[in-house]
Amino acid sequence: MADETVASIIPLHQPKKAKSRAKRPRTSRRRKPAKVAAAPIDEALDSETLIPEGYSWADAAFDEPPVTSPPSDELTPPRHKDVSSWSISPILLRAAALALAGVGIAMNGWFARSLGSSDAAGWLFFATGVAADLVALVVPSCAAALWQAQHRATSLAGWAVWMMTFVFAVTAGVGFASTNITDVTFTRASRVTPAVTAAQAALNDAMSARNRECKDGVGKFCREREAAVNERRQALDAAMQAVGQTADPQTDAAVRIVSWATHGALQPTNNDFAMLRLILLALLPQIGGILLMVGRSPK
Fold first, then answer.
1. Of 136, 144, 76, nearest in space to 100 by CA
2. What pTM was estimated for this model as a whole?
3. What is the pLDDT of residues 226-258, one digit of tens each?
4. How far is Cα 9 from Cα 46, in angstroms, rounded to an integer?
5. d(CA 50, CA 5)
6. d(CA 259, CA 264)
7. Confidence of residue 124 (pLDDT cuts 50, 70, 90)
């Protein structure tokens, strides 16, 4: 009879515990087990008696958040900037480009001004030469940037303009270099050396002796004095030619170096090295724009 009474009092389906707002993983904090007062069997059991004593909904709301691992980006230590970006090479390359550009502008401006028949025409030529050199300096970098920005037509137009100004600048550089080299070589070749002085004095003596011998008519001794004059004249020409050969020692030394290095297989002439030097002197001051394009910092 007592068992039937208890069965009638205890509900068949006990209410489940209310779930917390968000499932939280268990933390390392341990809670003391709450003591549940034992209710007498004959008392009515409701949902409130099934909740442990001392438990509150605030505890469930303010539970510690789950411990999550930081993202992989935070675990990776910050990388230092690439040392190559701070390299001094681009700076030196730009400095060399600006130096060559300055030399080229001065050379071409000077030569262009020398072509004018009047002072006004000379200054107009000067302005044309300077502007052409500035265009040849700036256009390569701009054309390369336009090509990277997919403006291909504009970039090709810029390269076409650069080619025209580049050819103009190179021809002006050839004129400047050839004019100055010729003047210096002629000055060196016309200098008087002791050998030339001695040959000139010997020729003067031979001519005086011929004139004295031949004033009464042409005879045996007159013809001998005439032959001596010819010999002295040839000696003077040889002495002056030797001075002319040493007027440009660079080309002569280059010929001898190449012949020695190749054991005589190559025998260039002085004119070959003179042309090579002229091309380099005219070309190098005009590549400042290319150097600026190469030394441009990548984006």
1. 136
2. 0.55
3. 888 888 888 888 888 777 767 778 888 888 898
4. 11
5. 21
6. 5
7. very high
